What we know:
- The radius of gyration is 20 Å and the shape is flat.
- It is mainly α.
- It is about 70% helix and about 0% strand.
- α3 runs antiparallel to α4, α3 runs parallel beside α17 (about 300-325) and α11 (about 185-205) packs antiparallel against α17.
- The protein starts with 10 loop residues before the first helix and ends with a helix.
Amino acid sequence: MTSPKPKSSDKPELEGVYGSRALRGSPNDYFQLLKPRVMSLVVFTGFTGVVVAPTSINPLIAFVAVLCIALGAGAAGAFNMALEHETDALMRRTRGRPVAAGRVSRQDAMAFAGVLSFLSVFMMALSINLVAAGLLALTIIYYVVLYTMVLKRRTPQNIVIGGAAGAFPPVIGWAAATGNAPVEAWILFAIIFLWTPPHSWALALYTTEDYKNAGIPMMPVARGAKSTRLQILIYSLIMAPVACLPIAFNMGGPTYVAVSVLGGAFFIYLAVKVFLSRAGDHPEGGEASLYDVKREAKPARDLFAFSILYLTALFATLLGEHIFTGL
């Protein structure tokens, strides 16, 4: 499925992108190209991988490793905005992004992303180790090529397969600390990988019109709201037990037991509420806020909001137990 061409009514908004008057952008515009919200989660989970790995690491080396992960994530985000500027301009959630709004040219965004990609992988290889550098390079290529350029417009499973890119940071962090990526690191990967579909599809249930207008076959667009609600429940039922696996591998202590079990149970409860609701049956439309949703879609909004808290709590607990209790 291909993205529709911008309508004539969109031309004034997109003139900076397609015309010759694109601005070079402010420092804040280039910072926004890094997708700072996404980057913060990437840095957090990557740092958790560094700390949870069963070895000591020099604080300066750990800082460099996390910096490389951050730069790599920012590069992937900038590539995504450069490649997706037409699509972003058609969606109310993304039309204010620097390239879509014409504040940064596509060429400048691509060059910026390319420099960051090279620096992040080169620094990781030179300062840390080749395993971590290779995984970082793979993550950038995976997100930019496989997800953004190949999958996003071709399959409703885009977020499932592409979600692996967001799940790599703790594995990269672990590899930076130890030089290898054992099963424990991939458990952290699996938690994020399985968390991504219910998190993303919950949002998609009340922003369906955005994806439809942009020609993106997100699950509610391609398979309908009912099927999406069922798949959210299925993924939630699989993810919650997987999130408890760090207990079995001695990665999480008593606090993690409580957070993962109780948090997972509440996640499933919210997923059941979404499944029994009519969220997505009547797509939203023109609300100004992502949180200003119809009553029938509020279960999806609640699951989306809690999913962020849940994943943060899981990794914060692992991080805290290893820092403060020496687990």
